[in-house]
Design a protein that fits this description.
The protein has 768 residues and is an alpha/beta fold. It has 28 helices and 25 strands. The model has no long low-confidence stretch (mean pLDDT 96). The structure holds ligand 39S and zinc ion.
Amino acid sequence: MVQSAVLGFPRIGAQRELKKVTEAYWAGKSSVEELFKVGKELREKNWKLQKEAGVDIIPSNDFSFYDQILDLSLLFNVVPERYSKYNLPAIDTFFAMGRGLQRPATDSSPAVDVTALEMVKWFDSNYHYVRPTFSKGVEFKLNGSKPIDEFLEAKALGIHTRPVIVGPVSYLFLGKADKDNLELEPITLLEKLLPVYAELLAKLKEAGADTVQIDEPVLVLDLPAEVQAAYKTAYEYLATAAAPKLILTTYFGDIRPNLAAITGLPVAGVHADFVRVPEQLDDVVSILAPEQTLSVGIVNGRNIWKTDFAKAIEFVNSAIAKVGAERVIVATSSSLLHTPVTLASEKKISSEIKDWFAFATEKVTEVVIIAKAVTVGVESVADELAANAKSIAARGSSSITNDTAVRERVSGITPEMAKRKSPFADRLAAQKKHLDIPLFPTTTIGSFPQTKDIRVFRNKFTKGEISAEEYEKFIEKEIEMVVKFQEEVGLDVLVHGEPERNDMVQYFGEKLNGYVFTSNGWVQSYGSRYVRPPIIAGDVSRPAPMTVKESKFAQSITKKPMKGMLSGPITCLRWSFPRDDISAQMQAEQLALALRDEVNDLEAAGVYVIQVDEPAIREGLPLRAGAERDDYVKWAVESFRLATSGVEDGTQIHSHFCYSDLDPNHIKALDADVVSIEFSKKDDPKYIQEFSEYPNHIGLGLFDIHSPRVPPKEEFVARINDILSVYPKENLWINPDCGLKTRGWAETKASLQNMVDAAKEFRASVSV
Ligand code: 39S
Ligand code: ZN
């Protein structure tokens, strides 16, 4: 019997229950008991859903109140002293590491002031994990029992689960040395860490777990030799009689270059992502020992399109032909964390198009059907297969997917269209003539707090409870307030604050042809922050200007330069669910042309500073070096330049990047006049050097926008001084790490005031 397996299920709840309760807990409006109760209910619901769908292998420990890697850091006592010293309850230490904590002293507790740990992209997804940070005093020990508790919780419900744990090599390789310990290579901690993993595994076995899904996703990366070698050390140590069986699990890519490192490991089986890389089947099979299982990741955990059953079944059958049915598991390609919870709550998508989709709940059923088809026979699921074939065919022949006008415009793209008129020096001179921008110019990245008020108002508008005019008036008032605020604080290049936008990608998706968007398709991005990725279903074009009205209005009420704000083609592509029937490059080009029109329209409307954000450009980089990566860099850079090169020299193009390990050469190739880069959590002094070759102007983010913490002016001054030791003052901009939409007004105001005051101090010291 071929078993079906799910690698992880979204934990946020169909109605975002997790977000609501965690944010209420942080605001002091919900007790810790309530928090834990909601967590427990969500887990129970997810397990039962999978059980009822007939899934054979159901995950546990895929739940987290913030992030699964942060869970491990707390569990293994990887808690820098700056957090542990407050002796907070474990859950509060956990949240402090995830999001920072600043609170005044009370009668019973001292003041707390600690920044968050660094947050980074989870591989090439829009999920972010909290980077394990190894300080000098790190002493691994089992600091809790979350995986065991959750296993037992499911067991008490009569559901036998397979716990999920990120394995030791990935855990270390995804981490970094803390600032007090910079010479440390995390992988050298392996031998100290292994006994703690062994203890955890033994306890899971004692609790009744027969198998554990041990995730080693770094196997899809280019690994240094010492990391490859670590697999043998780690798994020979862990695979003892006291441990459950281990399924070594990888996803999002190609494990072939690391196959030697995992050949012969004493694990029960290997899981690979055959949605991404079907060509790796033979090579993966070739390293399996006769008793090892092959878990075939065939239902895409990263996108929302229905699985083509005929193709999937054929693929699984080819695996069965190689290793035998008793050794095959049919699985999701990765955790379903990256997909929305259920299609059931989508009432607005037309039934024609809805029939093309499968969200997490529907994917669970897909896995079961495929497993049944290959075990019992296709006749046993004949109706399901027929319906699936019909839906796949309907999508293929739908007129939505092919717009000849768009295709023609894309084929007319020329290399000249992706070049600014003049080199940077000439552009800068032209910009200086008509833009009043001082030395150490201060600006923000674009968004201002999205208050409850704004969201409630928009919600009413979406539901038709208020008219378009009323909504517009409301937005104008918000823009007025934000502009006035920035003038008072003394910022130099202003923004309109984006009150009209629900999200920087979804907003554009809703305005472009070719897109479909959901009303409840939430996916966790980090912590309590979720996104509703719009879906690119057809060829993309811009029926009308998308942002001109608001930017033009904002510019009309101030004498300071107003910055227009757009999301770049790659970011729109990456943070949407893309099509799987045409290339990513083609989709990026279509988006680039739509955005180019928008950029030109902004300029025509008198907005002469335009920021085109590309925070996702790094995330789209193929995970391994090679031809595919070089190719991506070429077309990604070209798309950005295509979008931004239609303007005059005097129009200043900005771009922005955050939360990924950027390659300075790629940033340089974009040829933006000014770039801002998230930087405040980069505490290794050598990082400051990283962009020192950047020829145009640059703003290295000066404060963390994920934390309500307000940095004092002195902190800004010190940081700017550090930066000035490397970057010429003429090139430097002063800005936060990223947009301020997730912050409250109180800390936004205080932080920006301190930042502007610091800039003014530098400006004054230069002019005397
Ligand atoms: N990816 C995307 N797509 N966008 C980003 O900004 C980023 N930034 C980086 C990287 N990846 C990104 C970090 N990731 C958020 C999300 C992801 C982030 C950063 C921030 C964020 O703020 N998300 C918001 C949240 O989780 C939701 C934004 C949104 O879509 O709270 N809001 C909608 C709107 O404003 C819907 C808001 C809502 O909840 O219209 N409405 C209520 C409802 O539907 C009704 C109003 C209420 O009672 O509050 O029930
Ligand atoms: Zn950002």
